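Quick start: read one record
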Amino acid sequence: MKIGIGLPTTVPAVGGTQLMDFARRADECGFSTLAVLDRFAYDSYDNIVALAGAAAATERIRLATTVLLAPYRPSVAELAKQLASVDQLSGGRLVVGVAAGGRSDDFEATGTDYRTRGSRLDAMLDRLGRIWAGKDDGPGPRPVRGEIPLWVGGHSDAALRRTARYGRAWIAPGGSVAGFPGLVNRAREVFAEEGRAEDPPLLVSLAFVAPGSERLARGASYVREYYAHVGPKAEFLAKSLISTEDQLREIVAGYAGAGCDELILFPCTGDPEQVEELAKVAFG
């Protein structure tokens, strides 16, 4: 199982210099992927812009949106150009993970319709592929390899069918490893129904970390604020943060044993020093 790491672009008060230091360390420590979350109506970095910066600060690591909430972005052609530009800047290291989104405020803030986000996302994915392949009138540049791999997030039937139709990988929602096998079984059923039984998408999951007691306190505060829209579940998520070395070893082993192809560790604080700490345990 590969292990990636999140870039803390949604954690409050993380400066640009810190983010780029974080990206460089992740590249040097051997993580497979450097990933970003996406929000609009929140005090966070734009994830495409953040990955453009990370492209210049790194040499090896794959760059991924996990996930890009594409439907709140009004222009498919502009989005295709932005993503292909990051792919070029990184030498072809970009992966685009997408999802429909679950917060109406992101859509209201950009003047896009929340109710039709799923159907718009399907249309966007189809056109993105055509633009990157040079089969549409969208603008360049072209991706380095002629295409950009698409990953799809979400656990609804619509999201799973979207994964089967467009995705190289399925991004499972972060949570307890105990629930992962059940999600995977349902995903595989849908993939088979959509003709992907022999070539199913890779399985990717997220885990949220805050190593050490001091980071745990700050990380829990961030999680309560960031996920306030889910009500009482935000407190459950805050209490579920991985903070000890034993917890991290256990969850890495658990996901590997459950058939996960890549686990991405998302830090809930912004200090770059934790990258080496996480790598030492995760790869130990």
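The two ends are 13 Å apart (CA to CA).
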